[in-house]
Design goal:
The complex is a heterodimer of chains A (450) and B (463). The mean pLDDT of chain A is 94. Chain A is globular and about 70 Å long. Chain A has two domains: 214 residues, 2-Layer Sandwich (PmbA/TldD fold), CATH 3.30.2290.10; 228 residues, no CATH class. With 450 residues, chain A is an alpha+beta fold. Among the domains of chain B are: 85 residues, no CATH class; 233 residues, no CATH class. In chain B, strands 1, 2, 3, 4, 5, 6 and 7 form a seven-stranded mixed sheet that branches. In chain B, strands 9, 10, 11, 14, 20, 21 and 22 form a seven-stranded mixed sheet that branches. A five-stranded mixed beta barrel of chain B has the order 8-15-16-18-23. In chain B, strand 2 and strand 3 form a beta hairpin. Chain B is globular. The chains are: A alpha+beta (450), B alpha+beta (463). The interface between A and B is large, with 78 and 78 residues. Strand 2 of chain A pairs parallel with strand 3 of chain B, so a sheet runs across the interface.
Chain lengths: 450, 463
């Protein structure tokens, strides 16, 4: 696909200045986005943004240095290579550092760029944000406020060019609608959010976003703090996706080679219930994070990580792969031009089971449905595996959802939770993060309440 | 950064569609960082971000556009985009008379980090690595990070204001992994100041490293955290994030205005134990959330939010203050020129009380002692919050006993404020933090004396 040709030209100009015995990687990115926020029937804000810049990585004498600039002006770009070179001088020589090299894996053909999105007039975007706010409000008379209702769209292009022969260009479009609202009953207030994401306007489902926000807020009204105890929990798809993100972190090559993963020594062993098959696949076009290539410019590929409970492989970038005596799995993740890549999962999903959520609830009988978690970043330690997070949800009684619950925690360890998986739902749902959601049943989790 | 004549013309362009207010925010930021991991200096990185955001307000609508192009043409094109987004009723030409306002920055920088040889920065990392590893045989991994930034900002608006600030921050952090019979545990410690490289004169990197190492090693013998409601004593400096989350966010005027705060309409009412006085103070010299002007040009201020348990005031930015016809409080902040400002905290502290810390612990029959909290989150509409405990111990019969494994605390902000039943006469600021709101991160500080909350829910696994 021809994209970002002028970005590649910029990169080539820097690459041309590489010295003998020096590896140079240039990543150049450019993106635009608009964001419209509606509040109480008016446009609260409308932002038009443009972002561009470049990052340069130099590897010389087994040492790596990096510099970036949020600008493509010649004077700034000119300094980047020298600055990255200078930075490399101070690194400790490391035989495993080095850029990716072409590995022959074909680049998947993914349709991620939809020009139609670029033609949407601003007025239409404004209407969508206003319409979303109205839709949330009109959904239920207990909805007393819409904290935010927004439409966001964007397009971006990026290239990665190296002296080792990598030439990767990509571009994509995306858009989403998202709302968060307040539901009130008496003097109690609850909140809920809903969203819909896509690559062009036709992908968006405004009513679904509005309905989700209203449903999440209203279904928690009348909630109480549960009694403490050990229970079986059913995780809502959104919660599962967040959990998979944490588990994915422990399977990163960099955590493994540096002795920070609780699974580092467990390849080939049972690390999970036989119901667990976990795959990282950014070539899946349904994935929000689908992409043709990884952050080092290698082709995206499908990597099974856990198969029927057995740990099969970790995810690697070229450096962690060299150190582990293997090949990159195409899992270099980078935040943009302003950071260097590191090994990480890109599009995780669990192989679905056969039952939808209502059937899972009936099978569980008694337990707790966890509808949202907060504090995942503070309550989970991906090195020790200790897991403890704040939660909201509903009691499961006689196989059905009952009393709403709040202000409690769910706790276990990542290692135990994987073994304690009792069922995976059939309701796989790709979410705007690097993992897909699905209902997940885990037994023997500690709920702390009153 | 930008010539005042140019700013005047850009503001004129921004006002052409009849807006009530226009603002130019320009920023030039340089960062440098160095990372040691696994015994190696892995990488040094340098960054440069430069650009401007133009904000135009017409009635209830804000238009915003930003650009990395600081030429007059680039700025005027952004101004046109912002003006088109926020169209006022009138139109026509308005001339803006700009008056430069001097800025008093509480932070005095002695050594610009950009002038310090990289070799010296790298040396700090090596010293930290060595100090952490020497602490115990169980230390398996050490990573350390040095970072500095210099952010120069210029704010000018159609009210005639022009103000500038120069903000330098330096930070150092160490993370350690220790391994024992019960698996691996981690410990972290960081230090950061809104000053230059002279920070290391008063802050010894070896001490930071030892503290991180001790935290990891201590947790190797930790018991599973208890589960359920119990008294929680927070150590000095270790728990400011509790108040940042539990009530700070709920006192931000933008959330209050949208009824997304449990504190809406409660000014003058008792919202906390009389022992609680909560202050947000952007003028505490050198602290992580200190600055000369906020990102709307308002000087940093000391704002008493809760006085002796009574809600005194919220925190304000330009938009909310204008709507209420009151003064701004120096809390209008943004992550960068690519973001709209909103109400944000600076350094949020609980003032010391009268109790002796040892008496607070001795007076607690059974509960937990939290020496260091991790990050947290809050739902401001309900007040429910959660945060992690990085270093915590059991209190048994009035004494601190065994360490406990990492877990979360959950509670409800309004309830916790009322449940504070002891406040110590000590005080310490905590570690430098980054507060996230609506996708934007800004540097913040916090501090607390030793204090006790009568009851919170501890989310462990032990019965």
């Amino acid at each position: 696909m021809a994209a970002g040709g002028d970005l590649t030209d910029l990169a080539d100009r820097i690459i041309a200045r590489a010295k003998d015995g020096e590896q140079v990687e240039v990543v150049v990115g450019r993106s635009r986005h608009t964001e419209v926020r509606a509040y109480e029937g008016e446009v609260e804000s409308l932002t038009a943004a443009e972002n561009q810049g470049a990052g340069v990585r130099v590897v010389s004498g087994d040492r790596q240095g990096f510099a970036y600039a949020g600008s493509l002006d010649d004077d700034v770009l000119g300094e980047l290579l020298d600055e990255a070179r200078d930075n490399a001088e101070f690194a400790t020589p490391d035989e495993w550092v080095g850029l990716a090299e072409p590995d022959g894996v074909p680049v998947p053909d993914l349709d991620l760029y939809r020009p139609s999105l670029l033609d949407v007039p601003t007025g239409r975007k404004v209407d969508l944000a206003l319409e979303l706010e109205r839709a949330v409000r009109g959904r239920d008379r207990r909805i007393t406020g819409v904290e935010s209702a927004e439409f966001v769209d964007g397009s971006g292009e990026r290239c990665v060019v190296t002296t080792t022969g990598i030439r990767s260009e990509s571009r994509s479009t995306s858009c989403y609608l998202s709302a968060s609202c307040l539901a009130t009953a008496g003097d109690e207030t609850q909140t809920g959010f809903g969203f819909s994401v896509g690559r062009e306007l036709d992908d968006l489902d405004l009513d679904e976003a509005a309905a989700d926000a209203a449903h999440r807020a209203t279904r928690l009204l009348g909630s109480v703090k549960p009694a403490s105890g050990r229970v079986t929990v059913v995780l809502d798809p959104f919660v599962t996706a967040q959990l998979l993100g944490v588990i994915g972190g422990t399977l990163s090559g960099s955590a493994v080679v540096k002795g920070r993963s609780p699974f580092a020594e467990r390849l080939g062993e049972d690390v999970a219930s036989a119901l667990v098959t976990l795959v990282d696949d950014p070539t899946n076009p349904s994935a929000y994070t689908a992409a043709r290539a990884d952050g080092e410019g290698l082709a995206s590929r499908r990597n099974p990580l856990i198969e029927r409970g057995v740990l099969r492989q970790f995810v690697h970038d070229s450096s962690t792969a060299r150190r582990s005596g293997t090949r990159s799995t195409g899992n270099a993740v980078r935040g943009g031009f302003a950071s260097t890549p590191s090994a990480g999962c890109r599009a995780l999903s669990l192989e679905p089971g056969v039952d939808d959520q209502p059937a899972l609830l009936r099978a569980v009988g008694e337990g707790v449905l966890v509808s949202s978690v907060i504090g995942l970043h503070s309550g989970v330690n991906p090195v020790s595996g200790d897991f403890s997070t704040g939660a909201e949800g509903l009691r499961i009684q006689r196989g059905e959802l009952g009393q709403p619950l709040r202000e409690f925690t769910v706790a276990s360890t990542l290692q135990r939770m994987l073994h304690d998986v009792e069922a995976v739902g059939s309701d796989v749902e790709w979410l705007p993060m690097s993992a897909a959601g699905v209902s997940l049943v885990i037994r023997d989790v500690t709920v702390s309440g009153s | 950064m930008i010539d005042e004549d140019v700013i005047g013309r850009v503001l004129g362009t921004a006002l052409r569609t009849g807006a009530d207010f226009a603002e130019v925010f320009a920023e030039d930021k340089r960062t440098s960082s160095a990372v040691l991991d696994d015994g190696r200096i892995e990488e040094l990185s340098s960054g440069r971000d430069r650009g401007a955001g133009i904000r135009v307000v017409a009635g209830e609508t804000t238009g915003y556009a930003h650009t990395a192009d600081l030429s007059e043409a680039g700025l005027r094109s952004a101004a046109e985009a912002a003006a088109a987004a926020a169209r006022g009723g009138g139109g026509g030409t308005r001339t803006v008379e700009l008056t430069r306002r001097p800025t008093t920055n509480p932070n005095v920088v002695a050594i610009d980090p950009a002038t310090v040889p990289k070799a010296r920065k790298v040396d700090l990392l090596r010293r930290a690595d060595e100090a952490a590893r020497a602490r115990a045989g169980s230390i398996r991994q050490v990573s350390a990070r040095y970072g500095d930034s210099r952010r120069r900002i210029l704010v000018a608006n159609s009210d005639g204001l022009v103000a500038a600030d120069d903000q330098t921050r330096t930070m150092f952090s160490v993370a350690v992994v220790a391994a024992g019979d019960t698996g691996m545990q981690t410990g972290r410690q960081s230090v950061g100041r809104t000053i230059g490289f002279e920070m290391f004169d008063a802050n010894d990197v070896e001490a930071v490293a030892r503290s991180a190492a001790d935290r990891a090693v201590t947790k190797l013998r930790a018991r599973p955290a208890p589960s359920g409601e119990m008294p929680v004593v927070i150590g000095p400096g270790g728990g400011g994030v509790l108040f940042h989350e539990a009530c700070g966010h709920g006192l931000e005027a933008d959330l209050v205005a949208k009824s997304a705060s449990v504190y809406k309409g409660r000014q003058g009412e008792r919202v906390a134990s009389p022992l609680v006085t909560l202050v947000d103070d952007g003028t505490i010299a050198e602290e992580w959330g200190a600055f000369g002007i906020d990102d709307e040009g308002t000087p940093a201020q000391r704002n008493v939010l809760i006085r002796d348990g009574v809600l005194a005031d919220y925190m304000w930015d330009f938009l909310r203050a204008r709507k209420e016809g009151r003064a701004r409080s120096g809390n209008g902040r943004r992550q960068s020129y690519q973001h709209l400002p909103m109400v944000r905290m600076t350094n949020t502290v609980i003032l010391p009380g009268d109790d002796r810390p040892e008496d607070i612990i001795a007076g607690t029959e059974s509960g937990i002692y939290v020496a260091q909290l991790g990050g947290g989150s809050v739902n401001t509409a309900t007040g429910d919050f959660v945060f992690g405990m990085w270093e915590a111990y059991l209190i048994e019969n009035g004494e601190i006993t065994d360490p406990i494994r990492e877990s979360n605390l959950v509670g409800n902000g309004p309830k916790v404020l009322l449940d504070v039943d002891a406040v110590g006469d000590d005080f310490a600021m905590g570690s430098p933090g980054t507060c996230g709101k609506d996708g934007q991160g800004v540097p913040v500080g916090d501090g607390v004396p030793t204090l006790r909350v009568r009851s919170m829910t501890v989310g462990g696994t032990a019965a």
